[in-house]
Design goal:
The chain is of the alpha/beta class. It is built from twelve helices and 15 strands. Strands 1, 2, 3, 4, 5 and 11 form a six-stranded mixed β-sheet that branches.
Length: about 350
């Protein structure tokens, strides 16, 4: 009886799989056709459309009634789109490396696994590689919910004319990792990126108060380094543990359970509105009383939601300040155009870093 039931269900699954296969192939052929149409219009056409991909994923999540949850379903579609796009040309993406960093994880989450990811040694190298055209996009971290802004990234924007084409938020889980050579009862040193050490500060104080904490250039670098040292452990994420073949001896050791990092996608593209967008700008002004207030007032008057304001010292004069401001809306919206016009008259300099779809996944 159960056997008959199972057999029936498996026949049904086999039939559904055949249908899914055919449908995905149809979809891939359609995407190829889109690419041909785009190329006929313009030989240098860019196939990847961030706003269109965001719309597809949002619609999938809206329509989904379970039993798979919205994020799981969107992830499947993310990979289908990534594979469809790679039929034309796999997207090449530079990221803050080496292999196994959270930034690489963010790149894969945003572009899917058919993208080709290229590791860079530093944030400004990611900017340089994209500027030079060796890759079309770059992924850099910009802020962490526990540790705040990544000032290197903001500073790189000051020297660059690249645009922000997207954002992606990643839940960050840190683990304590050892290699097969580590003598676990003799760990005297723990390597990680300074940000990660800070994200696990309380846990380290409680569990490894005597171990020396050594900051290195990335978590993946920390993971790589302990392979040759019998008295060291590393703090890094799942991807680094997998790539470097390390064992997790303590999992999810971050002090804040909702620890997450926001990454930006940088490129040359102006992205049209997806219907739910953010805009990032940088303004500079004299450091006079009421300076910040006069900027914020414009957003308040026009009822535009600010999502972040960061101050950085300007390098062009000691009395100038630079504000990085993120807000909801797109430069195509008339209200946003009005806001930008008003702001322009109140500051020394205003640059739009980009309007881009709000992170979906
Ligand atoms: C098919 C298109 O091109 C690409 C592929 C997409 C897809 O597979 O859905 C979506 C946007 C683009 O990245 C398109 O512009 O619609």
């Amino acid at each position: 009886m159960t056997d008959d039931k199972l057999k029936g269900l498996r026949t049904k699954i086999d039939k559904l799989d055949r249908d899914i296969l055919e449908l995905i192939s149809d979809r891939a052929r359609c995407a190829q056709e889109v690419a041909r149409v785009k190329q006929n219009e313009d030989a240098a056409a860019v196939f990847y459309r961030p706003e269109r991909e965001a719309q597809v994923l949002r619609r999938v999540m809206d329509r989904n009634d379970g039993p798979l949850d919205d994020e799981e379903m969107a992830r499947l579609f993310r990979e289908i789109m990534s594979a469809c796009l790679a039929l034309e040309e796999p997207v090449r993406v530079a990221f803050l490396g080496p292999e196994g960093t959270f930034t690489q994880q963010a790149a894969m989450k945003h572009f899917g696994h058919s993208a080709v990811s290229v590791p860079m040694a530093a944030i400004d190298e990611v900017f340089r590689e994209v500027t030079a055209g060796a890759v079309r996009y770059g992924v850099v971290p910009v802020e962490n919910s526990t540790e705040g802004v990544i000032s290197h990234t903001l500073d790189s924007f000051m020297d660059s004319s690249l645009k922000i084409c997207g954002e992606v938020v990643l839940r960050i889980h840190q683990h304590l990792l050892v290699s097969e050579n580590t003598r676990r009862d003799h760990i005297t040193r723990i390597y990680s990126h300074a940000q990660s050490l800070a994200q696990c500060r309380k846990w380290l104080d409680a569990h490894w108060p005597m171990a020396e904490r050594v900051a290195v250039s990335s978590n993946a670098e920390a993971a790589k380094r302990i392979k040759g040292e019998w008295n060291s452990a590393a703090i890094a994420g799942d991807m680094a543990a997998d790539i470097y073949g390390l064992e997790k001896i303590s999992e999810k050791i971050e002090d804040q359970p909702d620890n997450s990092t926001r990454f930006l996608i940088i490129g040359h593209q102006d992205v049209p509105s997806s219907g739910a967008d953010k805009t990032s700008i940088v303004v500079s002004m004299r450091n006079q009383p009421g300076a910040l207030h006069s900027i914020l007032e414009v957003f308040h008057v026009h009822d535009v939601d600010l999502t972040r304001v960061e101050t950085r010292p300007s390098r062009s004069g000691i009395w100038n300040y630079v504000f990085f401001i993120d807000f909801e809306g797109h430069t195509d919206d008339p209200v946003i155009q009005k806001v930008l016009e008003k702001l322009g008259s109140r500051v020394n300099d205003l640059r739009v870093l980009g309007s881009y779809p709000k992170g979906v996944l």
